[in-house]
Amino acid sequence: MDTKKIHKLVTQYTKTEIASNTRKRQNVYARAIYFKLCKELTKLTLKEIGQTLNKTHATVLHSINNIFPAIKLYDKKLYKIYTELTNNDEMPIEQRYAHLKEKYNNLKKQNLPIQYSNLINIIGQIPNNEIQNAELRFNTIKDMLVNKNKQ
């Protein structure tokens, strides 16, 4: 998927022009979704992603690391848009699978504690056609456990 297609989808779903040079929350949050999707679905560097909207790599990084988590915590409507976009039929399943496979391989390379190795092996056994469902379920379980531990 290319940045133009991601730009079009984010603009369409959020009804916000992300290329505008404003700091209004609605625009900042929509740009954060755009930056996050570009980082996940393209091989572009942060600098290249930023250049698509005339922003710096630092803006992209700040948006992904600080703004996007705020969306996830406080703006369920926008986070739902993000999840819909990541599961959108216009995003090829092969691309989503390749992205998850890359994350899986990176996890395998890390020197993780033994308790994680069982989870990684389970993830590796998920059939390609069930990746989308598995990702949604894992995210739901993770969110439940994180919220449980915050209480």
Task: Note the main attributes of this structure.
single chain; 151 residues; mainly alpha; Chromosomal Replication Initiator Protein Dnaa, Chain: A; 2 domains; 74% helix; globular
Describe this structure in words.
The structure is a single chain. The chain is mainly α and 151 residues long. The mean pLDDT is 85. It has 2 domains: 3-86, DnaA protein, C-terminal DNA-binding domain (Chromosomal Replication Initiator Protein Dnaa, Chain: A), CATH 1.10.1750.10; 93-150. The chain has helices at residues 3-14, 25-41, 46-51, 57-74, 76-86, 93-109, 114-124, 131-150. It is globular and about 45 Å long. Helix 2 (25-41) packs parallel to helix 5 (76-86). The chain contains 8 helices and no strands.
In short:
This protein has 151 residues and is an all-alpha fold.
Largest sheet: none
What is the straight-line distance between the termini?
A: 39 Å
Fourth-tier CATH superfamily name of the largest domain = DnaA protein, C-terminal DNA-binding domain
CATH fold name of the largest domain:
Chromosomal Replication Initiator Protein Dnaa, Chain: A
Integer-rounded radius of gyration: 16 Å
What is the number of helical segments per DSSP (H or I, 4+ residues)? Answer: 8
Number of strands: 0
- The CATH C-level class name of the largest domain: Mainly Alpha
Helix content: over 70%
The computed structural class is mainly alpha
CATH architecture of the largest domain: Orthogonal Bundle
Shape: globular
Give unreliable regions as ranges.
none
Number of domains: 2
- The H/E string reads HHHHHHHH
